[in-house]
Design brief:
The complex is a heterodimer of chains A (377) and B (310). Chain A is built from 16 helices and four strands. Chain A is mainly α and 377 residues long. In chain A, helix 1 packs across helix 2 and helix 12 packs antiparallel against helix 15. The chains are: A mainly alpha (377), B alpha/beta (310).
Chain lengths: 377, 310
Amino acid sequence: MSLRHVWAVTRKELYHILHDRSTLFLVLFTPTLTLLLMAYALTVDIKHVPIAVLDYNRSPQTRAFIQRITAGQDLDLYAYARDMPELDDMLMRGEIKAAVILAPDFTRQLQAAKGLSLQVIIDGTEPNSGNFAVEHISQRAEAYVDQALARQLNAAGISANALNALDVRVQAWFNPDLKPRNDLIPGLISMVLGFPALSVALTLAQEREHGTLEQLLATPIGRSELMLGKILPYIIVGLLNVILIPLLAIAWFQISFHGNFLLYFGLSAIFMFAVLSMGMVVGVFMRTQAAALALSFLVIFFPGFFLTGIFFPLASMPEEVRLEAMMLPGTHYAIITRGVFLPGVGLDVLWPYAVMMFVLGVAFIGVAALFFRKKLG
Amino acid sequence: MAASVVIDTHELARTFKKVRAVDGLTLSIHPGELFGLVGPDGAGKTTTLRLLAGLLGVSDGRATVLGFDLQHESESIKPHIGYMAQQFSLYGELTVLQNLSFFSELFDVSAPDFNERSRRLLDFAGLADFKYRRAANLSGGMQKKLALACTLIHQPEILLLDEPTTGVDPVSRREFWNILTDLHIQGTTILVSTPYMDEADRCSRVGLLYAGRLITCDTPQHIRATLEGQVIEVRPDDWHAALQVLRPLAGVRAVQAYGEALHLLVDSGEERLPQVLAALEQAHISCGSIRLAPPRMEEAFFSMIQELEA
């Protein structure tokens, strides 16, 4: 292994990145842009879900009830429906996401203190808003019924405190407001930082298509020297993103960073090495840029999206899929990124993930060097 | 390896899918030769050079370059040769100097050696004033000279050049060949492929490749001498009519067009010249000039290939 050979390739590749605007854009800005886009698209809290009410009872109690469930910004009362067909129509047109039907004996049920039955219809084509509405309505309805019961009990001379026998106090550590953003953005960061793998996957095919590979193969450069020389510049550029993107997350999205930044930077370098080596494996097997691009999406991006535990918890995956997820550097890096951002854990907790990424990186670059032939055709 | 042979191939073959691009090539090249590889497109020139540069796997036969076996030791050959691909294959976004420096580092040229050689090579190639220009912005001829400089930076014992002057203007072509001649005089072994017969004439030895096989291999003088018969050069006014009349004549082996002239390859000049004149006169085709011409490499190869195809 000659470091001089590695550095010669690295320097040449850096010139290429700096001079080729599309590559420069790809490695420098797409991670940032993707993070902004996805953070906004995926972390918008559900608010102002339009609902309709079909009130067969029409009493002061039902009016109080409706006011209760539509108070605040979560649900908006879109309309009072006259009958079922009208409700149906509103759902079909997508004007409302959920509907509440209050039975004719609403007041009687409430006064009989036998509990309350409530019908809620949701638009199943958009389960997120629907589920949100159901959860919200049942919470408010429960509180409303509890209060009504307490009033009746008080009137009968029984202390209503017994109703609150169970007192659960939940504390969300590390993310006290339970904002999904606080968890999702570190996950997204770990994903977008892997983007330069695409450029690495294309770099060999690009040299092949430009004809420069022929001259390069006629030199005594070693295969692993070539692989490392091509990965190194993208690690350097990628580490610029490791500074830029957490800053963006902290300053723009107000995500708190509790860990040690230097530690994060070091672990990110290992991740870059691993994920870029993975890109190199793709590059070794694909002879054209188009093919390399297609395979990158198949083996790097989609698994990086769905299998690394950013959106879907690893624990809920079947055994085989979880095994595959462990082969992805992004899985370990997502755990590291979340750990460093939210609880602010250190190397004492994160070292197994760092070791795993390093092992994967060495394995990937080994496979790439092994299967790369210094031949044309 | 005999000390007097630097490239030695025996029944060397390379197959692509079903095409045998090189088909049983046996060739010995001695130190200091300027060997020209000629042949029509698709004859296997590029494949031969790529095989010798260790860029393609050997399908059959055996070959050694500087004593290293091509099949098993192709990486050991690479530090000792300078290979120049047919199409421009340097880095366009790098400057002239950066390209040179890149290849010098891969060939482990020391920094002082690089400083001395790059200055000399850039002067030699006439690129001294373009050091900081990006390679992509050079003219075609300058790109070829830069590519040659890059293959020379490690002072290789053997140069393998694949059609280095194709697509280059005549002035640059001549300059390029003057450089090759200088290198030849300095003792570098050069194997160069070319589609141009005037370039073949400047080589110390020439091999004609046809359908992946070496048809003939000799000095240009000998090859010209092996051409049986002579050449009659005719400059007819009506070119097409003349072609119709002359082709079927007895003793005419081939007719080739050279600009306005037609070259007739005949078995005996003295005997056929009057017959050609008579035939043209009979067909009322007037001629600017008609004369016996010395055969050239081109005619020699042309007649050999025609014999093979017949």
